[in-house]
Specification:
It is a multi-pass membrane protein. The protein is an all-alpha fold. It contains 18 helices and no strands.
Length: 461
């Protein structure tokens, strides 16, 4: 008997992803350190190997390592851009007809293969450039945006009422906060006690368990239409996929199209900033003046992950006195303040305190996704989340590439510049939300917008 709870799959995947990101960043940093300096990276119980005297040759060496690590991360992200975009768009768009489980299964297979390859690389000390190839191959199966997009569409399929939907998403954010917080807290101890190879192996086992749950225990609310598969060729299916995407923006009134485009723009730009700055945080904390080791980075990651928990509480409390659009404003402006404060942080205590200003960072992402789901028909949820995941994949790779490039170019004269730049970029989603408000967004207006749509959502040819 199959069940319809997507939450276990999301939490297991979140554990794997949350542990993989800091592990990979530190693994790349250490490998480049050892290859550049020809000696083994060591870490004390308090701080990492870090020289704070700018006149020292070691300080210049550290800056060189940070530049190389940032540029290598840029290469890795770019390698997965094109296959990730194509696979994400096609898998999620086709999930309206073929079910939500297929994107989850394939993206989990890609994650499993990538972590097994990282395990082999760290165990056998294989060339670091092979990470670029594994990222490219893994992206062919989809990536994290593919998995999250399918999960959000799965929840929307089950929860027809908007209030129930947003509560379930908020509860999910709460659970994600607990899992990612504990994972981030333990990531440093994983590295110190188990090393990179065994840590990646544990992640691979978790992904394998998650894959088994999705395949054998999770039900699919979208039933596969066998007649459509028989009568439609591959080219016709691809044509139908693009046609439904085109109709998503063509159907409905001018107000609906304007709201849809503005909300997608707001979500993508905000995601661009928040996701792009994440790997820079690790590099910023590893270098002077903070000079954190893997345990402190784990503490920082855990504190940052509390934004899922605090965002859940924020949505729950603010929903009693604020409208959706105002809740999104709170998250954007508090994140903007946090970026500006981080740029001027020079001590460990201040860095921990600055993390508090990021406690509502996830709120706009949850709210904007819920707002978007209100302006499209239930049969278009897969296409909508395919577009969102496609743009998030493009924005995610572009942002991490851009931020890594900017950080490597500015780390020598001012490491905090990227955070000031992020604060400035957050003005764009704030202005976009103002335009949404001016057009006339109302909490219950989505019903009228959906009724504006034609009943046909698929191609007749």
């Amino acid at each position: 008997m199959k069940i319809s709870f997507i939450e276990p799959a999301i939490l297991l995947y979140a554990f794997a992803m949350t542990l993989t990101i800091p592990l990979t960043a530190q693994y790349v940093y250490r490998r480049i350190w050892e290859e550049t300096g020809n000696y083994t990276f060591t870490s004390s119980s308090n701080v990492s190997e870090c020289e704070q005297n700018k006149s020292s040759s070691t300080f210049a060496f550290q800056e060189e390592v940070q530049k190389k690590a940032s540029l290598f991360s840029l290469q890795v992200e770019i390698s997965g851009l094109i296959p990730g975009l194509v696979s994400t768009f096609m898998l999620l768009s086709s999930s309206d007809n073929h079910g939500r489980k297929l994107p989850m299964v394939l993206s989990s297979l890609g994650s499993l293969g990538t972590n097994l390859w990282l395990c082999a690389m760290s165990y056998f000390d294989l060339p670091l450039q092979l990470l670029v190839a594994s990222t490219f191959i893994g992206a062919l199966f989809g990536n994290y945006t593919t998995f999250w997009g399918a999960c959000f569409a799965y929840i929307v399929d089950q929860e027809k009422e908007y209030k129930h939907r947003i509560i379930r998403i908020a509860v999910l954010d709460f659970m994600l906060g607990v899992v990612t917080g504990l994972t981030g807290l333990s990531s440093g101890y994983f590295i110190r006690e188990l090393g990179f190879a065994w840590s990646y192996f544990i992640i691979a086992v978790v992904v394998l368990v998650n894959l088994a749950y999705i395949l054998f225990f999770l039900s699919d609310p979208i039933k596969e239409s066998s007649s459509q598969i028989v009568t439609m060729s591959c080219s016709e299916s691809l044509k139908d996929l693009f046609y439904r995407t085109y109709m998503l923006f063509k159907n409905g009134s001018c107000k609906r199209r304007s709201l849809l485009c503005l909300l997608i723009f707001t979500l993508v730009v905000y995601f661009f900033v928040v996701f792009g700055i994440t790997p820079v945080f690790t590099l910023y904390e590893l270098g002077p003046p903070l000079c954190w080791n893997e345990v402190y980075i784990g503490y920082g990651s855990a504190l940052g992950s509390l934004s899922f928990l605090s965002s859940f509480l924020g949505i729950w409390l603010f929903s009693y006195c604020l409208k959706d659009i105002h809740i999104a404003y709170v998250g954007i402006f508090t994140t903007m303040v946090g970026m500006m404060l981080t740029a001027f942080t020079r001590t460990t205590l201040m860095m921990f305190l600055v993390r508090i200003s990021f406690f509502f960072t996830i709120m706009p992402l949850s709210i904007l996704r819920s707002m978007l789901s209100k302006v499209v028909h239930s049969t278009e949820q897969g296409v909508l989340f395919a577009c969102i995941a496609f743009l998030e994949t493009l924005g995610g790779v572009t942002s991490t590439s851009a931020y890594n490039g900017i950080y490597s170019a500015t780390v020598a004269w001012y490491p905090g510049f990227v955070f000031l730049l992020s604060a400035g970029l957050l003005v764009l989603p704030a202005v976009s939300l103002c335009m949404v408000k001016c057009i006339g967004w109302e909490e219950g207006s989505y019903t009228l917008l959906i009724h504006d749509e034609p009943s046909e959502h698929t191609s007749d040819s």
